Predict the 3D structure of the following.
Amino acid sequence: MKIDTIEVCTLRSKCHMTKLITSLFFLFLILIFLNIKSSPSLDLYSLSSKSWGLMGRWQRTSKSRNMVSMLQESVTFLPLKDLRFSENPTSGNTWFMSSLNDTQEENEAEHLYFPSDASKGRVLCIKGRDTRDGTKNSYALAWPEALPDLATLLKGLTFVSDTYYNHENLWHGVCATIPFVRWSMKNNCIRPDRWALFHWGELRLKMGSWIEQLMRVNFGEVYVEGFNNGSDIPYCFEKVVIMRHDLGRLGLENKLKVSDHLRCKARKYCEINPIGRGVEVNERGEPIIRFTLLLRRGSRSFKNSTSVTEIFAKECAKIQGCILNVVQSEDLNFCDQVRVMTQTDVVASPHGAQLTNMLFMDRNSSIMEFFPKGWLEHAGAGQYAHHWMANQSGMKHQGAWWDPIGDECPSPKHDAECFSFYKNGKVGHNETLFAEWSRKVIEEVRQGKIEQMSKIKLNPTKDCGCLHS
Ligand SMILES: *[C@@H]1O[C@H](CO)[C@@H](O)[C@H](O)[C@H]1NC(C)=O
Ligand SMILES: *[C@@H]1O[C@H](CO)[C@@H](O)[C@H](O)[C@H]1NC(C)=O
Ligand SMILES: *[C@@H]1O[C@H](CO)[C@@H](O)[C@H](O)[C@H]1NC(C)=O
Ligand SMILES: *[C@@H]1O[C@H](CO)[C@@H](O)[C@H](O)[C@H]1NC(C)=O
Ligand SMILES: *[C@@H]1O[C@H](CO)[C@@H](O)[C@H](O)[C@H]1NC(C)=O
Ligand SMILES: *[C@@H]1O[C@H](CO)[C@@H](O)[C@H](O)[C@H]1NC(C)=O
């Protein structure tokens, strides 16, 4: 101590001061020493690091509390339906969640998934349950640690579907839901915990009953979210898949895979041999061809179903192995429909919902469709829905017949009026034409079966193309 003092005290004027500082320093050292003795479990390092640690943690907690509330408050809700794109609502990112980019994969429907790398781990939140104005509903991305105030976190996987058309219409409902089935097939056949349905950003509470049944067959119970906590409560999704392009860029091969999968699942659900019939033969070893006349009551029924039945019965009887089955579609429940169509190679039916069941026929089966007068001219492109359906489920649409006979539309210049005039008309028949047409189709199916008989059959997969189903 003395040596230090001497060395430091080269300038006399400052020496006194230095002595004081040095003494204070030693006093401080003694205090620390005593402190260590009185708390033997602590060394000098841990003593100081502990107190600094506490201090730091206190600072950090208040800082991160600030940060969390800053993040919460920075969550920005945008309108679900973006009117800037109302000229072209279905192109690009569409007018639904327009700020978010789709994930594009070759031959797959464009979709969005959150949380993702692209969202930097943020989840999707939706606020609002307006059923009339999509601009009143909104969406945002938020970090799971900083969900907006009052948010309800919906656990598990949610499928969010927005369609420009309609989830209740058979064709459009099928188009809106098929991409989810495909996405699920690619992801170990994972099932959603709920669906949220939108049309132009407006909330919808149900899908058509046939589509819902089909989704139930594939995914189990279908729960459609109603966001019932109130329109100002944000709902955030732990995991969410969003489809807003209907079939979008889903390629034909993949559409066929979905159809095969759904057919297989429906047969399994209804306890029908999922492998299907293959080629049945009669006692003479000839292939059996099952021809089903699928009737409906009311609008678009045949004017005289007895005579239509007679025409097909006569033709069928002329061809070896042909068996006619006449079925009233309204009398069938879902599994009856699946069973009837599993047992059908050719279905002849007026245009209508019952034809959607073509999905349950074996691949390559045939469809003959009948329309009332006036549809060809006034019904627009929608009348081809079963042609499209046949194409994407691997069936052969063998053409349609439009009845040329019937009352004339009273206001032929007005398309919409004429369509409502003809819409619910009935279907007549032309014996010559029906006979020739059905003969040709049955003969073609017979030839196909004979060819198939000579081929080695591949065993279809037992699991409907999914590992965990
Ligand atoms: C979406 O894509 C556009 C154009 O490719 C890009 O400019 C934009 O940053 C993307 N937005 C997000 C949120 O990734
Ligand atoms: C909001 O709804 C969910 C289910 O949809 C429920 O579990 C939750 O308790 C509700 N929260 C409030 C605050 O009512
Ligand atoms: C329907 O057709 C059958 C046989 O083709 C005929 O006997 C019957 O009278 C017809 N019914 C009506 C209501 O025209
Ligand atoms: C469907 O028919 C085509 C020829 O029309 C044939 O090449 C194909 O193998 C058939 N597919 C099945 C699954 O029977
Ligand atoms: C169905 O597919 C066939 C063959 O690929 C094609 O020629 C036809 O135009 C398609 N029909 C419709 C209505 O899309
Ligand atoms: C019935 O169909 C045949 C064959 O296509 C046709 O020649 C005939 O004119 C049709 N009859 C009526 C009444 O339309």
